[in-house]
């Protein structure tokens, strides 16, 4: 009987998946690595001319530099990260009923964030250049806390986006502070982030009996539970990858500042726009 129930749950999950996922959506998601590959195929002199020079910035290079990679390892790391994070964010959103919200964020991350992140890097002028997709990729990581919280609420009736999304975000922020350049400032940021996460997650424990029941029911939902688990593991694992303890390892310097900006700005912008949208008439179609 248990095996039959698990099989039925799995069939229900894949049925929901087939109804929610559209071929056009997948094509749009895959267009990003395609563009990155096409840009990488350009001559090295052209790619170097498209990097963002901090001492000689331009609007063209501010945008184009996000899609430029000068070696195959850098390209493969960013494409691999994107192919893990973006489809997961899409699936979590589509199965939560927020497909439109994901693609609004998708458009903003690709159209606005390259320029915004490039110019925000000018806060510290230095004789160097910026390039690579990792800042935009971290924007998709910053969207995951909202997608995960929506999924918990919609599929398992556990918590709410309003409390769980900030909790997930602050957990990621605490990890990034502890993993990267360690100093009294980052330790303080980590402590404040942990405290903030606890304050946001505490309302979920107001009714422990109901919470335990919902968690047990969620664990038995084949497919849905695994998707959430993979999404959560990808979110946590990517924080470890994006904020290494030694940003200069491997012969190149990881731009921790751009990573943090991408992560934090994406979450704040999406969360704030959803909260504002919920208070505006006629906004339900995308929030």
- Strand order, largest beta sheet: 1-2
Class based on secondary structure composition and strand pairing? mainly alpha
Number of domains in the coordinates?
A: 1
Beta content comes to: under 5%
What's the total count of β strands?
A: 2
The count of helical stretches stands at 13
The residue-averaged pLDDT reads 86
| Low-confidence segments | 1-6
Ends distance: 40 Å
Largest β sheet strand count, sense and barrel closure: 2 strands, antiparallel
State the helical fraction. Answer: over 70%
Structure, described:
Strands 1-2 form a two-stranded antiparallel sheet. It contains 13 helices and 2 strands. It has helices at residues 2-20, 23-40, 44-49, 59-64, 72-96, 99-111, 113-120, 134-156, 161-179, 184-201, 208-219, 224-242, 256-278, and strands at residues 52-53, 129-130. It has one domain (2-278). It is globular. The longest helix has 25 residues, at 72-96. The two termini are 40 Å apart. With 287 residues, the protein is mainly α. Helices cover 73% and strands 1% of the residues.
Write the layout of secondary structure elements.
Layout: H1 2-20, H2 23-40, H3 44-49, E1 52-53, H4 59-64, H5 72-96, H6 99-111, H7 113-120, E2 129-130, H8 134-156, H9 161-179, H10 184-201, H11 208-219, H12 224-242, H13 256-278
Antiparallel strand pairs: 1-2
């Amino acid at each position: 009987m248990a095996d039959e129930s698990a099989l039925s749950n799995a069939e229900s999950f894949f049925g929901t998946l087939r109804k929610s996922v559209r071929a056009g959506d997948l094509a749009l998601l895959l267009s990003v690595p395609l563009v990155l590959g096409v840009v990488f195929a350009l001559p090295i002199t052209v790619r170097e001319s498209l990097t963002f020079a901090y001492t000689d910035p331009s609007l063209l290079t501010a945008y184009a530099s996000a899609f430029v990679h000068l070696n195959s390892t850098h390209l493969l790391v960013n494409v691999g990260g994107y192919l893990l994070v973006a489809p997961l964010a899409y699936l979590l959103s589509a199965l939560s009923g927020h497909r439109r919200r994901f693609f609004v964020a998708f458009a903003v991350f690709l159209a606005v964030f390259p320029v915004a992140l490039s110019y925000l890097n000018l806060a510290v002028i230095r004789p160097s250049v910026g390039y690579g997709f990792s800042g935009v990729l971290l924007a998709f990581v910053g969207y995951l806390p909202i997608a995960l919280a929506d999924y918990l609420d919609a599929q398992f009736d556990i918590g709410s986006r309003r409390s769980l999304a900030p909790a997930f975000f602050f957990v990621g922020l605490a990890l990034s502070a502890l993993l990267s350049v360690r100093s009294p400032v980052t330790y303080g940021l980590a402590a404040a982030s942990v405290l903030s996460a606890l304050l946001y997650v505490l309302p979920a424990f107001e009714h422990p009996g109901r919470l335990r029941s919902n968690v047990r029911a969620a664990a038995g939902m084949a497919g849905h539970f695994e998707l959430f688990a993979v999404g959560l593991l990808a979110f946590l694992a990517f924080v470890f990858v994006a904020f290494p303890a030694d940003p200069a390892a491997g012969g190149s310097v990881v731009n921790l500042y751009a990573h943090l900006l991408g992560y934090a700005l994406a979450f704040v912008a999406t969360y704030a726009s959803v909260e504002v949208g919920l208070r505006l008439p006629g906004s339900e179609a995308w929030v």
